[in-house]
Amino acid sequence: MRRTKGYQDLDENAGDSRLSISQMPLPQEIEMASVSVVPDDTFTVTQAVNALGFGWFQVKLSLCTGLCWMADSMEMTILSILSPALHCEWNISKYQQALTTTIVFLGMMLSSTFWGNISDRYGRKTALSMCGVLLFYYGLLSSIAPNFLWLLFLRGLVGFAIGCVPQSVTLYAEFLPTKQRAKCVVLLDCFWALGACLEVALALVVMPTLGVHWLLALSTIPLLIFALICPWLPESARFHVASGQPDKALATLEQIAQDNGRPMLLGRLVCDDSVGIGQRGRLKHLLIPHLRNTSLLLWFIWMSCAFCYYGLVLMTTELFETDADGSEESCAADCRPLQTTDYMDLLWTTLAEFPGIFATIFIIEKCGRKRTMAAQFIIFALCICMLTYNGNRTFLTCILFVARGIIAGLFQAAYVYTPEVYPTALRATAVGACSGVARLGAMITPYVAQVLLKSSIVIATGVYSLAAVLAAVACLALPIETKGREMRDTVTGTT
Fold first, then answer.
1. Which candidate among 53, 199, 205, 330 keeps its CA 20 to 30 Å from the CA of 273?
2. pTM, entire model
3. Could you tell me which residue ranges the Major facilitator superfamily (MFS) profile domain spans (predicted)?
4. Of 230, 211, 221, the residue nearest 75 (C-alpha)
């Protein structure tokens, strides 16, 4: 209103001056100058985020979001350590070991769309705050589970809470300028890799002396820290605008300008989101005609990513056990706890995620999202096929190192593409749906990596290779390449 009043004053002053000047025509230069006094004084969140650039605000958000990913990674990495430990402590079978992993992913699958709806209806910050508290609470309770059934129940609830973690990527991506978005989202995986390495190092120290229950308890410390800092997380400005709260969105953008040391854009914040409040966050909108092919292909790609990634994580400990025993056969009563060499090799293969991340950053901006994901799936399939070669432990570790780096970078490439291809009104729901479908693949993979692998390593690796090749074809079939494309606010239009 103040800006409008200022424009009116300028017009009045100009009008008074014209009354006192002869009616001679104004030169063209003066006319053009007077036209530029009143510009088109509107801007969108996308324009504001791009203009304010990457700065201290995004750095703080990177650390908060990264802590969430690090905590999630520790809860996921512990699955590969938990099963052999419970096999020794409670004498559970291979199928029960696989069930301890499957139950977590079942909880994640069932809750992913739930958290996506919460994020689109009540905000990303609200969903992540609830997630942090629940994840810490159930993670801590699982450390004192008295028996196997109680442990299954509590780990399932942990999985339910973990289903919200992908929404942190939604929040993070919505604050990133277009030019930096892909690099920053891929770099976020550094926190995941750091969490995985920290969990292996913690297991190396804790397991020989205190045991698996103390490992479960100590692994919740990052979750507690994240839950405590959630009140300071910013809410998405895109969500505020889409939900009819432009004042709150403007306040957030002004905070970005202040933190980044940039001047705030002049004018009025507008939204061209064509989806009403009552239609936001519904799963059925992902299957409208011009989004149907994209959604179906992405669901298969995400499912294959999770199937291959977690399969490789679980196979790593299984292959190291097999290599140490010199035989693939073992009865349910046999107990061989992971040794120091096993933890060190597991740590080395986990460290492979870092070069995989940096390679993905370089390739994804050069070749685009679709080609990068397709190429990584093919390379992963080749690496998995090489696991059938009966080499020494060093050869096995090297192949697992390369495969782990490739599949880690691939997962992050999918996290880059998905928020970019969907509009604001459906973005959190889309990420939640993709994450939920991915957990279906993760639920199946323990029975391949931990059960089928014991019967035939050739069949097990063949399953993973086939899934990777099919997913590569799906990547190339995606309708749109999002490289250099701004995040959309509207659902209408073609993809």
1. 53
2. 0.72
3. 61-483
4. 221
